[in-house]
Each structure stands twice: as C-alpha cells, then as structure tokens.
Amino acid sequence: MSDMFSNLGLGLSVALSLQNLALCFLGCLVGTLIGVLPGVGPIATIAILLPITFGLDPTGALIMLAGIYYGAQYGGSTTAILVNLPGEATSVVTVLDGYQMARQGRAGVALGIAALGSFFAGCVATVAIAALGAPLTRLALVFGPHEYFSLMVMGLIFAVVLARGSILKAIAMILAGVLLSTIGTDLETGESRMTFGLDFLADGIDFAVLAMGVFGIAEILRNLDTPETRDVVRAKIGRLLPDRDDLRQSAMPILRGTVVGGALGILPGNGAVLGPFASYTMEKKLAKDPRRFGRGAIEGVAGPEAANNAGAQTSFIPLLTLGIPPNAVMALMVGAMTIHGIIPGPQVMTKNPNLFWGMIASMWIGNLMLLIINLPLIGLWVKLLQVPYRLLFPSILMFCCIGIYSINSQPIDVMFIAFFGLVGYTLLKFGFEPAPMLLGFVLGRLMEENLRRALIIARGDASTFLTRTIDTTAFGQPIGIPLSGILLGIAVTLLVIALLPSVRKGRDEVFTE
Amino acid sequence: MASDDNTISVETPRGPVRGPQTLAAGLVMLALAGIALWALGGLSSGTARSMGPGMMPRGLAYMVAACGVLLLVFGIIRQSDPIERFSIRSPFFVLTGILAFALTIRVFGLAVAGPLCLIIGGLATPDARIKELVIFAAIMTGVCIALFRYALNLPMPILIIPNVIYI
C-alpha cells in the first residue's frame, strides 16, 4: 500500500513538471477541440493528432496522447448532449437523456454532471490502475511466449465478440489486420514478404498511415454519404453547476457506473464499450420511476458517463502491465509507444518508472483539467458545433495531410492515406468495421514472434499451447497451472457462447438499444 | 442479423442471392486472400519447428479465404442488407485533394499544397461554395503555417518558387 503511494508520488513529481503539465493541458484542449466536431470520434481524433506528439520526449508524448484521449471522449459527450449525435459507441447512451435534458434548457447541468461524474470515475480508476499495476506486472513476468500468444488470441476473440454487427465479419477483419502486419521484411530470416518490390513497404505498412487512412479519411467519406442533419440545441445552456437535488440523484448512479465501467474496462477485447450500456440498463432497472428515462433523467447521463470514463481509463491496465492493447484506441497508444522506442509490457514499469507512473499520475491531472477547461469553454464548443460540415471536412483533410507528411517528410505516405482511406470506405460499405483490423494489425507482429518462439521451445509440437504449465506453489504444494491452455479455453468458450442464437439476439439488442 | 426475420418492411431481393452485401463482402475477402497468396509466391513456409517467413502470412491468407467462403455461403442463403450505393463524387474529390497535396508539397511548399488540398477536397460535397472555400483555405493555410511550422516546429517547406524563393 505504501508502495503504491510512493509510486504515485513519483508519478506526480514527473507529471507536475511545468512542461508535462503544459502538454497535458494542451492534449486535453486539442483533444476536446477535435473530438467535439461532429462525426469525429476518439479513434479518429487520436489518429489525426498522433503526428504532433512525435517530436516530444516519450513521457511527454504519452502524457499528451492520454490527454488527447480524455479530451476526445469528453468532446464526444458534449456533442452527444448538444447535437443529438453520438460520436462513437460509448456515447450512444448519453444521447438518450442528455439531449432531452438539453432540450429542456438543462444542457449546462447535463454537461456539468457529465464532467463531475467523469472526474470522480477518473479519480477512482487512477487509484485502481496504481493498485493493480504492480501485482499484474509481476504476473506478466512469469508469462512465456506460450502464455502471451494465448492471451493475445483471447484478447482478439473478446474483441470479436464485443464488436458491432456480424461476428464472422469481425473475425475476417482481425485476420486481415494480422495479415497486413506480416507485410515487410521478416525479422528472423530477412526475406521480404508481400512488398510487391516496393521500397517503402520494406519496413512494413506504417501504423500511423494505416490508422489515419482507415479512420480519418474513410470517416470523412462515410460522413459525406449521409446528408447532414445537425440539430444543435437552441434552448439556453443554462447554469452549469448541478444543484443539491441533481447531486443527490446522481451520486449513487455515478458510484455504480464507476464500478461497472471500471471492471468491464479491464477485460481484454473492447470491454469498455459495454460499460455505459450496462450502467444505463442498471439505473433504469433500479429507478423508482423508469418512465423518466429517455425524457431527460439526470441518472441516465451521470451513470453512463462515469462508466464511460472509468472504462476508458482502466483499459490502460492490460496495455501497461501486459503490453496488450484491449481496443483500437490502445492500439494507437502502442503505435505511439513503439515509435518512441518503448515496447509496451511488464518491463516498462521496471525500466521506465518515470514514464509509467508519470503517465498514471497525469491521468488524474488530465481529468482535473477537463473539468477546469471544459466548463468555462462551453460557449466555444457550442460555436464550433455550428461550423458547417462543408468547411469542417476539408480542414480535417488538410490536417491529415500535413500531419502525416510531417512524420517522415515523405509524399508517398500522404498518397497512402488516400489509398487506405479508399480501402476503409470500401470495407465500411460492405459492412466491415475497421477497428478490429487495427487491433489485429498491432498485435500481429507480437503474435508471430511469440508463436515462433513457443514452437521452437516445443520443437514444433503445437499441442504445447494446451499442455505447457507454469510452476507455482499453492498451499505449500508445488503445482503446475496450464495457464496458456486455460486462456485458450476461455477464448473458445466465449466464441461458442457468442455464436449461440439466443445470445446473439441479446447482443444485437445491446448495440441497437 | 437475427432481428431481420421479424421485420416486414425489408424488401426481399429478387433472384437466388438473398444477402448481396454479405456476398460482396465474401468476394472482397477472397480477393484479399488471393492477392496475398500471389504476393507470397514461393516464400518458404518452413516447418513447425522452424517457421519460415511464409508460414504465418500464408496460414492467415487461407483463414481469410475461409471467412470469405463462409460469407459467400451466408450471402446466398441468408438475408442481409442491400449493398449501399457508392458515391463517386466524394471519393474522387477527396482523394484528388490528397494526391494534389502529395505531389505539390515538395515542389511548391505548404502555401500551395495546403489550399490546393482544401479547395479540391472541399468540392466533394454538392453544397460547396467556391468563393467561401477560397477565402477559408487562405485563412486555414495561414493558421496551419503558424501552428505546424512555427509553433510545433515541424520541418516543412512553406513556399518554393524554383530558383527564386525557398522558405
């Protein structure tokens, strides 16, 4: 326990340096700025802003990126409340009651309670990360290549099960992502694979190029196809601070939302996405008068927003301790870390304690900053929401071009975002979601490396993934736990359950409610 | 989708194919697997004990192909959404705008590439107004030069006129 606080102290001393504080602030600000734009979700925001962090030192860059992430999340909620447009899956629920509150002239209170709920959830989640960080990292250190490979398989299966739409299409996307990651020079044999003789593919597809094409450009193309109906709230924003009654009504929902969202966020695969749905359903079931929901119930904003933020934060846990990104946003974080020469995983905490704890402490500071910048700046966000899309999208387009060019000063990179934009657009048209592809792409190389190593150790015997045990002691007796097999077993069970017709129907309902 | 069976309003597509979108999705996956297998050529797969460079990509390509076949089968026997209409206008202008940026940034600099990208890209929507776009492009380019070149210090030529000026 005292360890945890001394670690957090170290983190705070890093995060509170003037430069990092400024970066955290800047990240939150630009993250909200881009995230508030209708039609730009957190993934697209991070992809677009990724290049501007490349010039910084690794700690500063990650602190800024984390700030961008929270800013984008909060910006998405702002858009959901004020425009009735969910930026992405996790703010779908906020739209239901948030927009109704806004129409009743209580937009300010909705935004205020969302910010307060998020802040509270952020504080709890930061402590949870700090507390779970060290023990989980110790667990990760006993992992061998077998366990890593099985864990990644399990994570990908989770992502499939929790993706929207067809399971088969999600599987196809993940496999396609892993396949894309094998393009380039094979690290062990030095032979080039699927490069079509092109020089710039020798190092593989650039992660930032793929992300910006598939999320930035393809999103623009998709938005251009649907004629815009933007209904910015005309009613007054009203006071921002919730009064006593509001606070009393939201206190328990925020607490429950934090617990539910935080617990789901730790799951590998995209668990965080379920948090707001679970919280909303729970509040509706617990309410004395469920009919109020959908008509501007403050609990319907407070709970899901807290769950949303708690999940957003605890989804850092698998990344920081095991080195495995649980969703597309964390996949972008891995990409950013790798570019700075940091391989995510258990060794980060021991080798780079400043970075690890600094980032965790900056999460808390970032949440505080969101509370401080967002509420006074609400007028600015409303103005921004009124900029028509016909001017917004060309600006985003230009930002993408400049951003991607600034990384390597290579015009070919710019051309490739056009190519991947077209690919992403085509995939969307055929009902594929690109997020699982990005996750597969990031995990691909790690998976191949660990698969090879495990097979070498087992002399080519594939059953090693089921039989290999980790030696430990329980009740004083030495025992071997087949951890890798257990992980694979969970993955298979989960997939089978998700394919059962009754569960499938329920899954569809969760995502369409 | 399981819920499609209960809705009445969904129009049943004529002909033997009930799920054209799923069918097309299957074809896309088969094409991807085909390209990958062709690009892999004679790359050795090695053995399980020492995997060659081709084993993982080839295995993945076969798995992608299997998904493609399944999607094809489902596309024929199960109802799905119709294929969405592809627009030509927006991808054309957006992609041309990006290419224009790529081709001019090294030759003329950001002061030319930026507005070019913004104006050409801006034409992607039918309600584009050219005058508004030109003015907006001038302002945004100024902002971007200040932000990226000076505030963030990213290396990037601003204006190049061959043999005359290089900023």
Automatic annotation (TrEMBL), chain A:
InterPro entries reported in the protein's UniProt record:
DUF112_TM
Swiss-Prot/TrEMBL keywords? Membrane, Transmembrane, Transmembrane helix
Q: Where are the transmembrane segments?
A: 34-56, 109-134, 146-163, 170-187, 207-224, 254-278, 324-343, 355-381, 387-407, 414-432, 479-500
Keyword Transmembrane assigned: yes
Cross-referenced Pfam families: TctA
| Name of protein | Tripartite tricarboxylate transporter permease
Keyword presence, Nucleotidyltransferase: no
- Domain DUF112 residue range list: 21-439
UniProtKB/TrEMBL annotation, chain B:
User: Highest taxon of the source?
Assistant: Bacteria
Q: Which UniProt keywords apply?
A: Membrane, Transmembrane, Transmembrane helix
Residues spanning the membrane: 22-40, 60-80, 92-121, 133-152
**Do you know which InterPro entries this protein is assigned to?**
DUF1468 (IPR009936)
Q: Where is the signal peptide?
A: none
Do the record's keywords include Plastid?
Answer: no
* Record domain DUF1468: where: 24-157
- A Pfam family this protein belongs to? TctB
Which residue stretches, if any, does this entry annotate as coiled coil? none
The name under which this protein is listed is Tripartite tricarboxylate transporter TctB family protein
Q: Which organism is it from?
A: Salinarimonas soli
